[in-house]
């Protein structure tokens, strides 16, 4: 994806050096700070504060009127909605400036932190498919350090060419296939204890090779005390990003005195 490739030269080395948790934390802090700065200097802060104060006054009056005079409370609620609409309209300008950067960061996060890399001992399957090679065979060249599961043939009908394997050691392994027409396709597979971006698909014009069963990446897995919190231990990158974003947005808004 173009959205992930734009930031890859900067964020891929950070991911390899620090791991998913610290990379996501760094991105969340940066995006929150950037969004707050843009929001502060592209909006009329004085007017936003006045509108906020008006809505608070209206809400207090509404709570009193709900018991004394529901009809007036309803009229007051309409004023709140009108004021809130004006507030949202003024805030929307900042969103236009931050939309593209957010899309770029989300694209990279989704491409880089959705799946975990394969580790030593993990079982997975590799397959080759093609609509142009019906009733023909393809032969797998198995790299050293990868073992076949069960009793499988290296040569299979391309319409159902799938092999179950296990990673016996870490490293970068090159799977390769040769068809009965002598066409070849390769697929690099990385087995590592440190996080590296997962690339699940390789293809030529008519042949496709892919790895199935990449594990889902759990951001808080093995990180300090977070790993012992049940409701956090199963979170992926999106849930973790939203949590960090809410926390750091609140802190930066308070720090920079943003309405």
Summary?
By secondary structure, the chain is an alpha+beta fold.
Describe it:
The protein contains six helices and nine strands, in the order H-H-H-H-E-E-E-E-E-E-E-E-E-H-H. Helix 1 packs across helix 2 (20-42) and helix 1 (2-18) packs across helix 4 (70-112). The mean pLDDT is 87. It has 259 residues and is an alpha+beta fold. The radius of gyration is 27 Å and the shape is elongated. The chain has helices at 2-18, 20-42, 45-68, 70-112, 230-233, 237-255; strands spanning 123-129, 137-141, 146-148, 155-157, 161-167, 171-179, 184-191, 201-203, 208-212. It has a five-stranded antiparallel beta sheet with strand order 3-5-1-9-8, with no helix packed on it. The chain has a four-stranded antiparallel beta sheet with strand order 4-2-6-7, with no helix packed on it.
């Amino acid at each position: 994806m173009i959205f992930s490739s734009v930031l890859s030269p900067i964020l891929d080395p950070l991911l390899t050096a620090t791991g998913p948790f610290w990379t996501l934390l760094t991105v969340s802090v940066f995006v929150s700070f950037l969004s707050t700065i843009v929001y502060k200097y592209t909006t009329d802060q004085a007017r936003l504060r006045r509108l906020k104060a008006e809505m608070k006054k209206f809400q207090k009056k509404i709570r009193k009127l709900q018991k004394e005079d529901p009809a007036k409370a309803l009229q007051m609620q309409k004023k709140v909605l009108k004021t809130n609409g004006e507030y949202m309209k003024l805030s929307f300008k900042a969103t236009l400036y931050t939309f593209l950067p957010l899309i770029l960061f989300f694209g990279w996060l989704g491409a880089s932190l959705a799946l975990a890399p394969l580790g030593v001992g993990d079982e997975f399957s590799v397959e080759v498919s093609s609509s142009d090679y019906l009733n023909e065979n393809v032969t797998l060249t198995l790299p050293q350090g990868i073992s076949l599961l069960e009793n499988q043939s290296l040569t299979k009908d391309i319409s159902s060419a799938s092999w179950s394997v296990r990673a016996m050691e870490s490293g970068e392994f090159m799977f390769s296939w040769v068809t009965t027409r002598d066409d070849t396709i390769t697929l690099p597979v990385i087995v590592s204890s440190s996080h590296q971006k997962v690339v699940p698909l390789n293809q030529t014009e008519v042949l496709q090779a892919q790895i199935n069963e990449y594990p889902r990446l759990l951001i808080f897995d093995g990180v300090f005390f977070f790993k012992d919190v049940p409701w956090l231990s199963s979170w992926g990158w999106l849930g973790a990003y939203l949590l960090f974003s809410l926390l750091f947005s609140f802190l930066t808004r308070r720090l920079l005195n943003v309405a």
